Write the structure tokens for this entry.
Amino acid sequence: MLVPTFVVMGLLVFYPLAKGIYLSFTNADRFNIGNKYIPSTYSWIGLANYKEILTSQEFRDVAGFTVLWTFVNVFFHFTIGLALAMALNRTLKFRGMYRMLLLVPWAVPSFISAFAWRFIFNNPYGFLDLLLQKLGVSNPPAFLGDPTWAKFSVITANVWLGVPFMMVALLGGLQAIDADLLDAAAVDGATAWQRFWNVTLPGLRPVAATVILLGLIWTFNMFNVIYLITGGGPANATQIFATFAYQEAFDFKRYGVATAYGVILLSIMLVFGSFYRWTVARMGEETWS
Amino acid sequence: MSDFIETGSSSTEVIMPEALAAARAAPRRRRGGRSRSMSLLLHGSLVCAVIIAVFPVFWITISSFKPYNEIVSSTTLKILPQTWTLQNYKHVITNDDYQFLHWFANSIVIALITTVVGVFLAATAAYALSRYRFPGYRTALNSFLITQMFPAAILLVPIYNIMVTLGLLNTKTGLVLAYSTVAVPFCVWMLKGYFDTIPISIEEAGRLDGLTPFGTFWRIVMPLSLPGIAVTCFFTFITAWNEVAFANILLTTPDNYTLPVGLRTYVFQFQQDWQYLTAGAVLVTIPAVLVFLFAQRYLISGLTRGGVKG
């Protein structure tokens, strides 16, 4: 029964993957890629694409923002998500209502959220612009036009987008922690902070390790938010690898370079993924042995 | 990748909390009550968080009822429309020979077919991975996991190229095939976790009663995994519904656009019709939010159950 799936996966994933890796060693572009009627005429150029990418300033800039983007986002997803989960994990009036309303950013289709944030950040008639003017800021920043502010804006939008998932996952993790442990710690005189640091956080570790890894991977690959809000601009200031490679491929039609980016990204992911799992596994042993 | 499939694939790891169901059970009352100020602080922060969470949706909804000149009046902030209008909605729906409704239909058809194709293929593979041990089992399992990590960049160009060669550019078939590459690996992981929870003895009973292997799968395992199947369907649907990168390159004529690509044409660089964009966005968002809020209980518990045994 695996056969149909493997045929499809082979055709749709592994064949394109192999082809993508192959293309990354060629000079494929819009003129030689061929189509239904014209055969392709690109040729093997070895590691030239990789060399071009790895020695370019653009690569370093994009890498810098990708790292910033990924870690800042996941940091705030996790901390805000945890704070909200802790708040919701109490006896509380309107608890169900809070929980439901806090899920709204997750419920809205992500492309709609991206448009909504782009509208809010709009200059000069976006909500933030008008709000700041009302508060007396005579010359509000161009949230999407200024390179630094554009970075701030896309990260803000994506933090908003990702918090509910973390909140739900961590809420589940919190509720799986044995209340007796917390009570015992309280009886032993642990302060609220000590209970949080020494009981709650270690108890969350398995859930947290998973959601943080997933969060890092998704954020690293997140395409919609940046593409729809800034398109990577202004002047590539908000390009991450996912959007930059897309631009190389479909705006500039430099297919060879774009696939070489793909291969580099995949390698980064694989290395990072194994490293992360290894670290978490080791941390686990230290904690429990 | 889009957000919903991402969410789902958390179940690929073993660790999602068992107790989300218990989570919802009556909250414990621990160590007495809170002081009044503490309570105020807690509610205060939650209310702030709720306002931030809901605001973008509120803002596009409110703006969609404003006439164009109010949206672009950059002088003062007025939350509510001075004059309420339904003109934006009328324009969005009827413009260009009901083009928006075409986009809506395209999105729904593509997402539905992707769901059916993706989940069916994934279910058979997941069942095999759950029940049989064969040479290359580990490799097969891991290959599904690793495809989850693929940056779109590596598949976009070759798939685009293949679609061009096959003449599938600008067709629904092409898009469904492309989306299946994203959806199938995730569904396999999700469903394998589900199938693992079904005792083999039930199937053996079915076999004794004369069912073929496919029969046991179709008549016993599938019905028993309906909650898992439902969740997987939902996530696949949402993935296809939210996808931008492939749709943007594979669809070339406006009539074939899906919603994300179509709505984007309202706010291209030089002409930004926010009044239409907001109206269109509201029309897309309302059903999505209602379905999500209605389904979230089941989704989250379904996600968890599949994940526990991942």
Observations:
- Residues 3-22+97-308 of chain B form a domain with the MetI-like fold fold (CATH 1.10.3720.10).
- Chain B touches chain A through 107 residues (CB under 8 Å).
- Confidence is low (pLDDT under 50) at residues 1-32, 306-310 of chain B.
- The CA atoms of residues 66 and 127 of chain B lie 53 Å apart.
